[in-house]
Amino acid sequence: MLIKDTKFIKSAASKEGFLDGGRMEIAVAGKSNVGKSSFINMLVNRNHAARVSNTPGRTRLVNYFDVLTDKGEFVLTDLPGYGFAKVSKEEKANWGKLMEGYFETVGNVRVFVLIDIRHGPSYDDIGLIEYLYFKAVPFYIVANKSDKLSRSQIQKAKKEIAATLKTGDANIIVVSSLKKTGREDVLDVVERLMTESLEVESGELKVESGELKVEK
Ligand SMILES: Nc1nc2c(ncn2[C@@H]2O[C@H](COP(=O)(O)OP(=O)(O)OP(=O)(O)O)[C@@H](O)[C@H]2O)c(=O)[nH]1
Ligand SMILES: [Mg+2]
User: Fold this and answer.
1) Is the CB of 182 under 6 A from ligand 1?
2) Which of 35, 66, 135, 173 could staple 144 via S-S, CB 3.0–4.6 A?
3) In what order do the strands lie in the sheet containing 172-174?
4) Residues 17-73: pLDDT tens digits?
5) Ligand 1 centroid, distance to 16 Cα (angstroms)
């Protein structure tokens, strides 16, 4: 699949600003600093479509991009990160409200949950995954920063992530947004999502809540 063009649509700070969910949307979620904005830039082949920062918690808004491909159009959404320790309780509550509002409003969405391949899913990642599973929102795990590991470490990490989330390795896409590796694998998934029927069986990952291994 070819990405032909990408346009920034808008930022939304509250429910009123969310798109109404007519077009297929791919939302990129994950903890602060995991590389969501970098991942979006890699995917659309632009250096500065989404703002990358060394300061965690930079993206506080829901940012929408319109992506034109040779297979049609979709909306790519950069969600604000979570799990940043220095954020106040109030800000955390605001994040939760914003995200719940987002998932209540959005229609045709699939979520790419970015995790750091070196650390596996965090407690907050698992919380999000359980929420998505509960809401029957289809999602994929994108294991980022693979440039930090050797090939054998990547295989080992992938197995561990799959075991933690009780899913198959196939649901985990390994990428390095920095080195731009794994892009084709992601595009293959996007293409499949665009061409398949809208009635996708939800819960791509068979996570059974209560049985998850959480770090705490
Ligand atoms: N080594 C390595 N660093 C990366 C990779 N992807 C992103 N980074 C770095 O991680 C930092 C955070 O990247 P962002 O893309 O801003 O992360 P984010 O998830 O959008 O962060 P927030 O908007 O704060 O939630 C930056 O310094 C990036 O250069 C990667 O694949 N490998
Ligand atoms: Mg960001």
Assistant:
1) no
2) 35
3) 3-12, 62-69, 72-78, 25-30, 109-116, 139-144, 172-174
4) 999 767 899 999 999 999 999 999 999 998 777 776 666 555 678 999 999 999 899
5) 28
